[in-house]
Amino acid sequence: MIRYFDAEKDVNRIEVPPSLDESKRALSGGHHCMVRVVKTLSDTFSMASKPAAEELEKDWHYTWHD
């Protein structure tokens, strides 16, 4: 991304390139939101999800908790 703009000409953009420092937090949050979406849709339409929402939540815990 850094090659596509000149920080001196475009002062409204962040000057440092993106880093992986916060990617775990962002991906974990996105994963958790998707688990909640599946639960909400399952409850709203009274349909069991495949795989079950509980299994998705276990996967989330396994993936993101140390």
Task: Describe what you observe in this structure.
This protein has 66 residues and is mostly helical. It has one domain. The model has no long low-confidence stretch (mean pLDDT 81).
Task: Output the keywords.
66 residues; mainly alpha; 2 helices; 52% helix
CA radius of gyration is: 19 Å
Q: In terms of per-residue confidence, which ranges show pLDDT below 50 for 5 or more consecutive residues? A: none
Beta-strand percent range: under 5%
Query: What composes the largest sheet?
Result: none
Q: Kindly state the percentage of residues in helix.
A: 40-55%
Average residue pLDDT: 81
Shape: elongated
Task: Report the strand count.
Answer: 0
N to C succession of SSEs? HH
Distance between the termini: 31 Å
* Count of alpha/pi helices: 2
> Which structural category fits the helices and strands?
mainly alpha
Give the gist of this structure:
This protein is mainly α and 66 residues long.
Task: Map the helices and strands.
Layout: H1 23-44, H2 53-64
Helix pairs in contact: 1-2
